[in-house]
Amino acid sequence: MRPPVTHHPAAGAPRRPFRLLIVEDEKRLALSLARGLTAEGYAVDVVHDGRQGLHRATEGAYDLVILDIMLPGLNGYRVCAALRAAGNEVPILMLTAKDGEYDEAEGLDTGADDYLTKPFSYVVLVARVKALLRRRGRGAGAPPVHVHGDLRVDTAARRVFLGGSEVTLTAKEFAVLEQLVVRAGEVVSKTEILEHVWDFAYEGDPNIVEVYVSTLRRKLRAGLIRTVRGAGYRLETAP
Question: How far is CA 172 from the centre of its chain?
Fold first, then answer.
């Protein structure tokens, strides 16, 4: 078995560049992405099957993993689920040739942070990578557990409790709630939620935020998230 291909940051790159792992069995695509991201100043490792990817992601201190779904050895869903089950919270950007809400939901439910369908624009991929890294940076140093009335949100373990009972949320549902709970009592605009949860490159329907807020109200409590007309949403104190 050949060792993984390792690329070093280009001259002039930061002394401690972000480390990215690409797990992609289409070798030409993987190496093309690696060259481009290396030119952006990242340190990039590449592996071509799921088992190798899981091993490298587990053993290495990566800042982000770009993970294909259709992989030999172990598919991307299982790699992602295994990392999350082990407590590894590295941001994961999933790539797939599939397209459809079911596939996206499955990927996000296993703990992926974002999802990109092939064929995709390289510019969009770079934008997604930067957005995920920015989001991770904003979370550094923040308290991992937020208590708001009878709502308890553990951002490190990605677990939510209401009145002592655990509430199961998908990755995107948790991300929306996280944006509200870290700014509890403040109005958070729909645009801010889109930028933090879906990032600025999202080209879908902005009303997707309303869908997720509605789901959170159903799973948590109807009056917990208040709509502030024309401004956004605010997490209210439990009665």
Answer: 8
Predicted confidence (pLDDT) per residue in 197-233, tens digit: 765 445 667 788 999 999 999 999 888 999 999 899 9
Burial class (CB in 10 A: 0-12, 13-18, 19+), 31: middle
Under 8 Å between Cβ of 114 and 128: yes
- Amino acid letter, residue 133: L
Q: Higher confidence at residue 48 or residue 114?
A: 48
CB within 8 Å of 99: residues ≥ 6 apart: 117
**Rounded Cα–Cα distance for residues 189 and 37 (Å):** 32
**How far is it between the farthest Cα atoms of the chain?**
60
Return the closest-CA partner of residue 49 out of 70, 73, 65, 14.
73
* Of 215, 33, 225, residue with least CA distance to 108: 215
Other CB atoms within a 10 A radius of the CB of residue 28 amount to 8
Q: What's the chain look like in SS3?
A: CCCCEEECCCCCCCCCCCEEEEECCCHHHHHHHHHHHHHCCCEEEEECCHHHHHHHHHHCCCCEEEEECCCCCCCHHHHHHHHHHCCCCCCEEEEECCCCHHHHHHHHHCCCCEEEECCCCHHHHHHHHHHHHHHHHHHCCCCCEEEECCEEEECCCCEEEECCEEECCCHHHHHHHHHHHCCCCCCECHHHHHHHHHCCCCCCCCCHHHHHHHHHHHHCCCCCEEEECCCEEEECCCC
What are the tokens at 104?
């996206």
Give the integer Cα–Cα distance in Å for 184 and 146.
9
pTM greater than the 0.70 cutoff: no
